[in-house]
Give the backbone structure.
Amino acid sequence: MSMLAGSEHQRVKTTCPYCGVGCGITAEARGDGSVTIAGDPEHPANYGRLCSKGAALGETLSLDGRLLYPMAAGRRISWDDALGTVAARFAATIAAHGPDSVAFYVSGQFLTEDYYVANKLMKGFIGAGNIDTNSRLCMASSVAGHVRAFGEDIVPGCYDDLEEADLVIQVGSNMAWGHPVLYQRLMAAREKRGTKIVNIDPRRTATAETADLHLALAPGSDVVLWSGLLAYLDGQNALDHDWIARHVSGFAETLEAARAAAPSIAFVAAAADLKLEDVRRFYEMFAGTERVVTLYSQGVNQSSSGTDKVNAILNCHLATGRIGRAGMGPFSLTGQPNAMGGREVGGLSNQLAAHMTFTQDAIARVGRFWQSPGMAAEPGFKAVDLFEAVGDGRIKAIWIAATNPADSMPRAGDVREALSRCPLMIAADCWPTDTTRLAHVVL
């Protein structure tokens, strides 16, 4: 923060907290309490661009409607009383029922440091794995696909690839609404270099309107479409066999499975409810373009076969060596500002810190680093299972922070019922929500 000479203004460079793009912003606070928000022209995510949400951030900084102090049983209490109550009741629950009777449910809105401390507290000092996050709902399929393909949860690309790609494929992504700043970058790149765009989405969205080709495939047919592409690439001698030999394992089995799933373009077109000539055009565009970026989002991830969809996409990039170089690669567009940061420090119930899993060596290593008195020895409940455990009484105390599962979880009615019966429910948030209304203690 820097004070501007000769004025009462203060200017702060920071990051927009809304979505996964991470736009840089400059906030200028005036003496009357008002704040002017502008995009940071030097920031590498947005170069000064802002969407309507980021531009309106100044309107969220007033005290109107905010939670301003801790509450318990509907009355205001001090921070000392609130934290003392939470600590005493958590300790009593653990003493009576063991560490697996308590849980944290946290959020991709957390800062990485918040995620780390919450994870350390639960897994290293309470001694249970029961911390999971709302990022589970949007990113678990992508995480599992990355782990299958790369051995760990990584995203092999960056935003600058959008400016260097000759073909961009949008899969299950309405970028114009969901990631408008990245969409603006892509539109600017197309204006400059003539980038071709294919949009794969059952719906005709605002994003689809600006694509060169829109494939309105039948819901659930993504795997067939991408398996057909892999088989087509092989048939056209468009695979990079030298790269495959150096960097890829299991290719022969993968290609065999793709051929079985999609024996012909006609089969793919029928299965996906698409015109044969549109499928062929997409396949020809991919085969004939080296610099290809595939952007996929929640239309891929939030599916009963989401992980298979992710791997079907990754396989086509791996088989052509179109990965890890400028202007090419698969890229998962996330929805929250810090889903990846949380996973880096173990914010999922089946992870420890630094992407380590619950192996004996990793448990011992993390325990030494944390000087933990009793590390969690196994994964805890994942998000859906966690709230089922609250409902049937296995979880007797839960701390929910920066998220509103009473509204956002699947089967939200069951979640509200479970939380209303939980002996101890703590909610930490900036605003009243459906979840804070059910809490015994509100922070």
User: Anything to note?
Assistant: DSSP finds 20 helices and 16 strands in the chain. The longest helix spans residues 79-97.
